[in-house]
Amino acid sequence: MSFQCFKGCLKEPFDKFGYCPDSFDNIPVFVQACVFFCTDDRDCPSTEKCCLHSCGQTCKPALGLFNEIHLPSVPYNLTVKEKKRKNGVHLSWEFDSLNKNQTILFVLEERHHLGRFYNEPLLGEWNPIYSSKKNFVNLKNVIKPGYWYQFRVASVNVNGTKGFSTESEGFKLARRPKLQKPTKLRIEQVKEKNGTIWGTVRWSPSESSIPVQRYKIFWSHRLDERDTNFKSEAVLVQKDLVPENQLHYHLKSLKKNTEYFIQLQALAFYGRNAIKSKMAKMIFKTSKFEDQFEMNDFD
């Protein structure tokens, strides 16, 4: 049974195993209103069933699943261990099989949040990430540094499932998250204005495990004897901060016939710690009225 088959089966009308509760006394009043929250079991998540009450239908956890012999048992003792290479993670679990001949598919789900410290209320929705016929899985380059994860696993056969295992403890890779430097750094729309040079620096965001929160741009040039602050080998450095959703910066009033050194860096905060990418770099010659691009071999 493939994972695609499993997802397709969930879209077909079917009756889940188990039964609805006899009493709805503990259901909130707004749920008992004359509203049909579901039409059949496929409208209900996980092992919940679509149950009819006095004036409508609503999803309720199915009863009687524990003793249902046609469904596989719930996995237990889910463990998570970090491997040394490629952000690898090994997950394993135990499972009691009553019928060695039946085909069992294990479905693994995760939820996560970004942050230096674990905070369970910040975890997002559950997402399926893997399916296997074995009671273990090795994940490579799926788990990202800088995020806390929680896992759970369910066993599924042709008849359905009894639900997911107990959630794992919070898990995080030991490696500190990194920011990749911006790519495709370039100068466009170069023009002369009022005796000075103007141009637009543009770049593309890089693939990083944590989101960029801002960019820091530097532009510098050597001073010559005509500059007020001239000193031998002196360099004038200017800088500015750019919002994370802005992938360009306008350079204004640059000196003509001058060589500028452009640097761009991605920034993020991880807890109280600042994370900085390596610099993307290029040389911009204001004697050329044309687009100029990052020197990829300039390091």
Automatic annotation (TrEMBL):
Molecular function per GO: peptidase inhibitor activity
Cellular component, GO annotation: cell surface; extracellular region
PROSITE patterns referenced in this protein's UniProt entry, alphabetically: FN3, WAP
Pfam (any one): fn3
Domain WAP residues, every copy: 13-63
Domain Fibronectin type-III: 181-289
Chain segments annotated as coiled-coil in the UniProt record: none
Single GO biological process annotation from the record: neuron differentiation
Protein name: Anosmin-1
